[in-house]
Design brief:
CATH superfamily of the largest domain: 2-enoyl-CoA Hydratase, Chain A, domain 1
CATH architecture of the largest domain: Alpha-Beta Complex
Number of strands: 9
Strand order of the largest sheet: 1-2-3-4-6-9
Structural class: alpha/beta
CATH class of the largest domain: Alpha Beta
Helix content: 40-55%
Order of helices and strands: HEEHEHHEEHEEHHEHEHHHH
Shape: globular
Length: about 280
């Protein structure tokens, strides 16, 4: 296992573990004793990784997983206790605001990452973990994974993840899930659109992930990055100018080395050079 040069010397704490095989980077959340509840250090480490690989075309996909059989159980209670002490010290809520907004910035960064992001969802997928699942490009869930938005039952808001949940499942479903603080398993997550595939056990999970990685490798790296960026733009930009620019990008792609290689591989009935 050799990490890409963009992250080989990256300093992150033990809250995450990085593994890489070829162009596939796996980012493990590593607080198993707390079901991978997200600390500020974990959030900052995730941000550091996605910042480092943003322009690294050798990293084609990021697999998000959790150690110890859980994806992520939300925010870390110990961190919240420390933030509460800071708020009391300064006499205002700024520490809470800053912490919450930092988490939102991380979710947005993962959402906008040029790489294909795959979430492998087992055990607890709650609160912030639920939000992280909602910004993945591909989500694979164990049938017994426990999903939920418990915030309202705790007297707080799903403040930073709410927009991403709405984007993922639509306003009607988001309202029901958040306002009832619902807990549910993989099949329901599939039905409401949080995940794309549900598997019965660890063997099926490994197989589904392997097949997903194979499909990612079949797609051209630069075309994949450009396609993801274009899809994001469809929700924010006027259609006419967007299609004009998309036509320009299409022409550039056809004439590019990647486009020509893809065409030749198809004609010659072989795998393109980027398919490892």
């Amino acid at each position: 296992m050799t990490l890409s040069s963009s992250i080989a010397n990256l300093e992150v704490d033990g809250s995450i573990i990085l593994e890489q095989e070829g162009g596939i980077l796996t980012l493990w959340l590593n607080h198993p004793e707390s079901r991978n509840a997200m600390s500020l250090k974990m959030v900052e480490s995730i941000q550091a990784v996605f910042t480092a690989i943003k322009d690294d075309v050798s990293v084609r996909a990021v697999i998000l997983r959790g150690k110890g059989g859980h994806f992520c159980a939300g925010g870390n209670i110990k961190d919240m206790a420390g933030i509460r002490a800071k708020a009391m010290e300064v006499g205002n809520n700024t520490p809470y605001t800053d912490f919450n907004r930092t988490f939102g910035a991380m979710i947005e960064q993962v959402d906008q990452a040029p790489q294909t992001v795959v979430a492998v969802l087992e055990g607890a997928v709650l609160g912030g973990g639920f939000g992280l699942a909602c910004v993945s490009d591909v989500a694979i869930a164990h049938a017994e994974a426990q999903f939920g938005l418990p915030e309202t039952g705790l007297g707080i808001l799903p403040a930073q993840i709410a927009p991403f949940v709405v984007t993922r499942v639509g306003l009607t479903q988001a309202r029901r899930l958040a306002l009832l603080g619902m807990r549910f398993k993989g099949q329901t997550a599939l039905e409401v659109g949080i995940v794309h595939q549900v598997v019965a056990d660890e063997v099926e999970l490994a197989s589904a992930l392997e097949e997903t990685i194979t499909q990612i490798k079949r797609c051209a790296p630069l075309a994949s990055r450009a396609t993801k960026a274009l899809l994001h733009r469809t929700t924010k930009e006027e259609l006419g100018p967007l299609l004009d620019d998309a036509a320009r990008q299409f022409a550039e792609a056809v004439a590019s080395a990647e486009g020509m290689e893809g065409t030749m591989a198809f004609i010659q009935k072989r795998q393109p050079s980027w398919a490892e």
